[in-house]
Design a protein that fits this description.
Blueprint: H1 4-16, H2 20-32, H3 43-58, H4 62-80, H5 85-100, H6 104-122, H7 127-142, H8 146-164, H9 169-184, H10 188-203
Helix pairs in contact: 1-2, 1-3, 2-3, 3-4, 3-5, 4-5, 5-6, 6-7, 7-8, 8-9, 9-10
């Protein structure tokens, strides 16, 4: 195996090809030879850990992913500061990992931190901020808070539509998620209404 830099480049190529098992092997081999203490990690070790956590999420291994996402986030904060894009990316991966691992309280905490940071960097209505707010609403829904999760996501959709228009793929996907929230909470009529609206907007999308 070559240097960590070479391994990171190779792993990114494999991820771009959607070959996540091969990327996992490359990254795991690299990390076995890296600094195990995030307080001593070098930048490439932190980047490798963040990418590894993301690959593990793709492979449905959230419990292991959260360990490496924590490592990456701690290292990125020390190396680059709280508001650096690499730190915020690692924080986002950590929030997703906690959500998928079922640690909903911790996921909520990390999403709150991410939203606060992105609101400072991009503004409260920036695309990355809106995406984090939408993800936070999914955690709220998983906690069983039907009304508040729908309200949160509906607010995000409204702002997104104001910025990007009604017929935008991201906004339409969020509407589909909102319909699923209504369905999961037992209001099938409202779910069908929202889904029908999303389908109507999808018709206006340009062909791929």
């Amino acid at each position: 195996m070559g240097s960590m830099s070479e391994g990171l480049v190779r792993a990114r190529q494999l991820v771009a090809q959607l070959d996540f098992p091969a990327a996992q092997q490359v990254l795991r081999d690299q990390l076995t030879r890296s600094q195990q203490d995030s307080a001593l990690a070098e930048p490439e070790e932190a980047e490798t850990a963040a990418l590894y956590a993301g690959v593990l999420l793709q492979l449905s291994e959230p419990h292991t992913a959260r360990t490496w996402a924590t490592y990456a986030h701690n290292a990125m904060r020390r190396l680059h500061g709280e508001r650096d894009r690499r730190t915020l990316h690692a924080l986002g991966v950590l929030a997703v990992s906690e959500h998928r691992a079922g640690a909903l309280d911790r996921a909520t905490l990390y999403y709150q931190q991410l939203i606060t940071a992105l609101s400072t960097v991009d503004g409260p209505d920036g695309d990355r901020t809106l995406a984090a707010r939408a993800d936070a609403s999914f955690v709220e829904h998983a906690r069983g808070s039907c009304a508040s999760s729908r309200t949160l996501l509906a607010e995000v959709i409204t702002v997104h539509q104001q910025r990007h228009g009604m017929a935008h793929p991201v906004g339409i996907r969020m509407m589909v998620r909102l319909a699923a929230m209504w369905r999961d909470c037992g209001n099938f009529d409202r779910a069908h209404q929202v889904l029908a609206h999303a389908r109507a907007q999808a018709v206006a999308l340009p062909p791929q």
